[in-house]
Amino acid sequence: MPTDAQPGIVVLISGSGTNLQALIDAAGDGRIPGRIRAVISNRPDVAGLERAARAGIHHEVINHQDYDTREAFDAALMTGIDAHGPDLVVLAGFMRVLTPGFVGHYSGRLLNIHPSLLPAYRGLHTHERALEDGVEHHGCSIHFVNTELDGGPVIIQARVAVLADDTPDTLADRVQQQEHRIYPQVVRWFCQGRLTLADGQVWLDEKPLHSPLQVEADTPLDS
């Protein structure tokens, strides 16, 4: 098992890995004081694996289709993750519903990003649904994972204005820009020991967060 002084991170992906790339870049330039020890995908031949390879990061596939049950897959995934001894597991476009056993195993050290202002628009097709409802603002949320789909205590949200001529694609592009800003920031806080979860309560800098931090597209982020 690795014994790095820096906190260790394992990133789980299912696709192109744009948030993974944001984390790789932030770890590479020192904004994240931790090391990405492994990238694991539940799907073969996705672009995120190529990103890991280019960065010299261990990467592997644990294909969910090779397992008969969700529990069997999650057990194999836990074995794969734990081989790298991570302090933090980051879901970066990982498109699987996780079992309670998995979530419990990584309680307090399992983060997810979701492309909506939770609790609005849990699940899929968030941008289309936001446009159909005619909302003025949309965005993304980072939260600790619990057993509820896209539930768990929210740490931070970034908002973008919804424009009159937006399409799902244009809105998704602007939301994704914010994802790439705030996910490295939250991972930085965790690796610095500033962000914790205790009894379902998020703590940042030894103060409880009674509601998620809110940032706008042009809000400077804490260093």
Automatic annotation (TrEMBL):
Protein family membership: Belongs to the GART family.
Active site: residue positions: 114
Name of this protein: Phosphoribosylglycinamide formyltransferase
Single GO molecular function: phosphoribosylglycinamide formyltransferase activity
Single GO biological process annotation from the record: 'de novo' IMP biosynthetic process
Name of one Pfam family that matches: Formyl_trans_N
Binding of N(1)-(5-phospho-beta-D-ribosyl)glycinamide, residues: 17-19
Catalytic activity, reaction form: N(1)-(5-phospho-beta-D-ribosyl)glycinamide + (6R)-10-formyltetrahydrofolate = N(2)-formyl-N(1)-(5-phospho-beta-D-ribosyl)glycinamide + (6S)-5,6,7,8-tetrahydrofolate + H(+)
Family matches, as SUPFAM superfamilies: Formyltransferase
Binding site for (6R)-10-formyltetrahydrofolate: 70, 112
InterPro entries found in the cross-reference section: Formyl_transf_N (IPR002376), Formyl_transf_N_sf (IPR036477), GART (IPR004607)
Function per UniProt: Catalyzes the transfer of a formyl group from 10-formyltetrahydrofolate to 5-phospho-ribosyl-glycinamide (GAR), producing 5-phospho-ribosyl-N-formylglycinamide (FGAR) and tetrahydrofolate.
Top EC class, one word: transferase
Site (Raises pKa of active site His) location in chain: 150
Pathway: Purine metabolism; IMP biosynthesis via de novo pathway; N(2)-formyl-N(1)-(5-phospho-D-ribosyl)glycinamide from N(1)-(5-phospho-D-ribosyl)glycinamide (10-formyl THF route): step 1/1
PANTHER family xrefs: PHOSPHORIBOSYLGLYCINAMIDE FORMYLTRANSFERASE
Keywords tagged on the record: Purine biosynthesis, Transferase
E.C. code: 2.1.2.2
Gene Ontology annotations for the cellular component aspect, listed alphabetically: cytosol
Ranges of residues in domain Formyl transferase N-terminal: 9-187
Organism: Ectothiorhodospira marina
